[in-house]
Amino acid sequence: STSAVVDQDGNKFFVKAASSREYDMLRAEYLGIKEIYETNTIRVPQPIVFGNFNDQKAFVIFEYLEFTGSGSSQFELGQKVAQMHRSLSKNGRFGFHIDNTCGATPQPNGWTDDWADFWDTHRLGHMLRLTGNAGLADDTVQKLRTKTRHLLTLPQHTTAPSLVHGDLWGGNKGFCKDENGKVVPTIFDPATYYGDREVDVAMTYVFGGYNSEFYNGYQSEWPLPEGHEKRRIVYNLYHILNHEVLFGGGYLRQAQGM
After folding, report:
1. Of 158 and 218, which is predicted with more confidence?
2. Which of 33, 96, 149, 222 could cysteine-pair with 82, CB 3.0–4.6 Å?
3. Annotated catalytic sites, by residue?
4. Is the pTM of this model over 0.85?
């Protein structure tokens, strides 16, 4: 459950609470938001605390953001996302120091030296396991994984371990008022890890919600490299397969058509 609470001094906070079984998920969300918050680039709700109450309820508390429908541009949103992407992992590896979730699906983030290895093991391979190889024959799955690895290891594609939101569909961005009343772009509900920055930009194409100003803003800050359109398909297959895990329906057919 989620709620807004006000303390005795009139400060407002946003609280997520769940059964104690969800403690690890809420802790991971807190740590993911904290990682983004500490870059001092794009606005995220300040993480306050997480914990367990009487070993029955898990909770996490964030700053309460006052959302507004307009007043800032997607151009600035694109710039800020690119600025966040300039934050690289301290150990030079891909992954995160804790596993988390994408939606409600477990997302493994074990540290990996090579980006193609990370994607094949912890993203594509992980989703194929969860979806019974997406209903594909074994030889087709092998071809898919080989082709994906080839795309991610082309010489012109050098990948730095950028801090990524990990689940940047249109519903996880917005605009809020800062302490001075200025409207600024914000992102929330991340599935944070360090990976190819293109995964975030790719996700913005899946369900809409982003306009040309966002992409112009991003490109003005840090242009995307050649071949990103092809890699976009590879990266978004992960999210389409995840939606099959979460919701079923026609997502498997969509994934098979990619």
Report:
1. 218
2. 222
3. 167
4. yes
